[in-house]
Amino acid sequence: MTLEGHAAPVYGVCVSKDSQKIITCSHDETIRVWEIMKGNLQKTVKAHTSTVYSVVLSPDGKLIATASADKTVKVWELGTGELKDTLIGHTSHVVGVAFTPDGKKLLSAGWDETIKCWDVETGEVLHTFTGHQGKVHCVCTAPDGDTFFSGGEDKTIKLWRISTGACFHTIQPDPLGKTAHSDEVLAVAVAPDQSIMASASADNSIRTWKVIGL
After folding, report:
1. d(C-alpha 67, C-alpha 135), whole Å
2. Residue 13 near residue 56 (C-beta atoms within 8 A)
3. Which residues neighbour 94 within 8 Å (Cβ) at sequence distance 6 or greater?
4. What is the pTM assigned to this prediction?
5. Are 199 and 190 in contact (CB under 8 A)?
6. Counting Cβ atoms within 10 Å, is residue 196 exposed (0-12), middle (13-18) or buried (19+)?
7. Measuring CA to CA, which residue among 186, 197, 123, 193 is closest to residue 160?
8. Predicted confidence (pLDDT) per residue in 80-95, tens digit
9. Is CATH 2.130.10.10 what the domain over 1-130 is classified as, yes or no?
10. Is 31:41 a contact under the CB 8 Å cutoff?
11. I need a labelling partner for 171 at 20 to 30 A (CA). Which of 11, 81, 155, 212 fits?
């Protein structure tokens, strides 16, 4: 089945908790909700004023968060498509978002070299994480609810703790590409048991890392 309707490149996709819907985001500034079984377009939302780079669902499946080149993060009600909150604070493109496992916090990765942690209920910035030397391309949260991972233009992968607001480990780049990435890190993901982390890079490689002991 092919789902057609976006008017420009599609950058992000996620699946609803009940496996009945697909949510997509695009350079056409919209998010779209599709019915999986029939492929019908259920809803189109003019979400941002520029490219929408990322869309994720909250753990309870009720909220959608989107990240955009318009420098904002937005939180939406999946059921109604209504805007719940607009999170303003980044000074450049926001390209990645991730909920914590309890759904109470939201992390955003920006090209302003920062990661921000937001309170989903109030929309407040709880902390701004700095340390990357260049654009931050991606962020993902760990199952423990405190650890998260980020990757960026500086070719590093960083491990952070929300509770301390600090980076506790950095995987440095390897110019030869033997022990680490040699180019920008574009995506990171962690296993459900938090034992393995995977990263994807502009150096054409995907790497896996043992998280235990870091």
Report:
1. 14
2. no
3. 53, 54, 67, 68, 69, 71, 72, 73, 108, 109, 110, 111
4. 0.94
5. no
6. middle
7. 197
8. 999 999 999 999 999 9
9. yes
10. no
11. 11
- Distance of alpha carbon 112 from the chain centroid: 15
Distance CA(159)–CA(154), nearest Å, equals 14
145: tokens are 């609810």
Q: What is the DSSP string of the chain?
A: ------SS-EEEEEE-TTSSEEEEEETTSEEEEEETTT--EEEEEE--SS-EEEEEE-TTSSEEEEEETTSEEEEEETTT--EEEEEE--SS-EEEEEE-TTSSEEEEEETTSEEEEEETTT--EEEEEE--SS-EEEEEE-TTSSEEEEEETTS-EEEEETTTTEEEEEE---TTSSSS-SS-EEEEEE-TTSSEEEEEETTS-EEEEE-TT-
Range 107-112 contact pairs with CB under 8 angstroms and sequence separation of 24 or more: 107/139, 107/141, 107/148, 108/67, 108/73, 108/139, 109/67, 109/136, 109/137, 109/138, 109/139, 109/150, 109/152, 110/71, 110/135, 110/136, 111/135, 111/136
> Is 97 in contact with 139 (CB distance < 8 Å)?
yes
- 146-176 pLDDT per residue, tens: 999 999 999 999 999 999 999 999 999 999 8
